[in-house]
UniProtKB/TrEMBL annotation:
Any one biological process term the GO annotation gives: phosphatidic acid biosynthetic process
Record protein name field: 1-acyl-sn-glycerol-3-phosphate acyltransferase
A Pfam match: Acyltransferase
Pathway: Lipid metabolism
Keywords, in A-Z order: Acyltransferase, Membrane, Transferase, Transmembrane, Transmembrane helix
GO molecular function, a single term: 1-acylglycerol-3-phosphate O-acyltransferase activity
InterPro entries per UniProt: Plipid/glycerol_acylTrfase (IPR002123)
Domain Phospholipid/glycerol acyltransferase residue range list: 76-190
Origin species: Leucothrix pacifica
Transmembrane portions of the chain: 12-33
Length: 242
């Protein structure tokens, strides 16, 4: 069984790298046309195609609940737990156009980084401390004012489903600084696609979109605690992947 799952995972990764390469080459060329929305829609196909290929090769599906909480009329800050690459593909493919808060070094990756550069990311040096926080607030508000959503993984890195880390304040501080609401998202992607593992196991990943959190009159610490509490509790309510 492990050998079979390994072979399926290798087949998926082969297709994943091909798709990433094609998107990474074409997206920068499209951006030269000066149509960022069209370029972003093309980038979304990276997520859609890989989600489809993952379902075909590895038997991993996705389902969503809480769609009624998705209000497209207002730019919003998405704060999600982070367990694998799967949620990056899903959120890119299924959510409105977003600027992603990412590690600066990701933009240096061949092909993948070239594609990410076209999504107006907020690339930070995590070692920069307060300077990185200020960058998130300044550039994040600019993106939101332009009508883009912003996506942040407040855990700061991929975390195994059986682990728990404290949420960082960057997303909450951006929300309070900008006045834009927060949308918490919880999922169990790491049960099928482990953070440092090649083998991907079949199952149905659940993404849960929570009620929008307004930030007026709240501190960043209060917003962060509210988001962390909701995601932590919601994760315990998600159905098993198998």
């Amino acid at each position: 069984m492990t050998l079979w799952l390994g072979l399926r995972s290798v087949v998926f990764m082969a297709g994943f790298f091909v798709v990433t390469g094609v998107i990474g080459i074409i997206a920068p060329l499209l951006s030269l046309l000066g149509k960022p929305r069209m370029t972003y829609k093309f980038l979304q196909q990276w997520g859609n195609i890989n989600l489809f290929w993952l379902r075909v090769t590895c038997g991993i599906k996705g389902q969503v609940r809480g769609k009624e909480n998705l209000d497209l009329s207002t730019p919003t800050i998405v704060l999600s737990n982070h367990q694998s690459t799967w949620e990056t593909m899903y959120l890119l493919a299924k959510m409105p156009a977003m600027s992603w808060v990412i590690k600066q070094e990701l933009l240096n990756l061949p092909l993948f980084g070239w594609g990410m550069q076209q999504s107006s990311p907020i690339a930070i040096d995590r070692k920069a401390g307060s300077s990185a926080m200020k960058q998130i607030q300044t550039n994040g508000k600019i993106r939101l004012d332009e009508g883009n959503w912003v996506c942040i993984f407040p855990e700061g890195t991929r975390v195994s489903p059986d682990k728990k880390v404290r949420f960082k304040l960057g997303g909450a501080k951006l929300a309070v600084h900008s006045g834009y609401p927060v949308l918490p998202v919880a999922h169990n992607a790491g049960e099928c696609w482990p953070r440092n593992g090649l083998i991907k196991t079949p199952g149905t990943i659940t993404v849960s979109i929570g009620p929008r959190i307004e930030v007026t009159g709240k501190t960043a610490e209060q917003v962060n605690a509210e988001v962390e509490a909701w995601i932590t509790e919601e994760r315990t309510k998600l159905p098993p992947v198998r």
